[in-house]
Amino acid sequence: MGYVVVVGADNAGVDYKDRIKADLAADPRVDRVIDVGVGSADDQTFYPHVGVAGARKVADGEAQRAILVCGTGMGMAISANKVPGVRASTAHDSFSVERLVLSNNGQVLCLGARVIGVELARRLAAEFLEYTFDATSASAPKVDAICAYEGVG
Ligand SMILES: O=C[C@H](O)[C@H](O)COP(=O)(O)O
């Protein structure tokens, strides 16, 4: 069983989002890609609406992961983290992407199209799917402590 992955972006990130969406569609690790928009750079929908829509699909169990793109990645991360059960962060290097999953059990990777190049963004998106959180690891009780602050888990 492969991943269901949500992709989303605002007008600043839509080109990156569409590139990553195409990569995911061709990725054998991915069963389905859900695109929560925007559809074009003309769509001025504010990033929090996209970020929360994407994060809700993860929280609801419709998807296991989400990749959200805005200008910096930060607005998407702040917005996605408003959804209980979601752990989202901007990560612009390989080590941070690894730790987002292995340390933080993060399900939502946020990328900044005005910060990193599209080839790095594509690579980080692919790397994000390489990792699976180990619930028996020493990091697990720390993630449990995060969840306890929001009444989840
Ligand atoms: O975090 C927010 C994003 O970077 C967004 O794409 C741009 O937001 P701004 O237009 O408010 O700078």
Automatic annotation (TrEMBL):
GO molecular function, one term: intramolecular oxidoreductase activity, interconverting aldoses and ketoses
Gene3D superfamilies per record: Sugar-phosphate isomerase, RpiB/LacA/LacB
Record flagged with keyword Secreted: no
Keywords of the record: Isomerase
Enzyme class: isomerase
Source domain of life: Bacteria
Reaction(s) catalysed by this chain's protein: D-erythrulose 4-phosphate = D-erythrose 4-phosphate
PANTHER family reported in the protein's UniProt record: RIBOSE 5-PHOSPHATE ISOMERASE, RIBOSE 5-PHOSPHATE ISOMERASE-RELATED
UniProt name for this protein: D-erythrulose 4-phosphate isomerase
Biological source species: Raineyella fluvialis
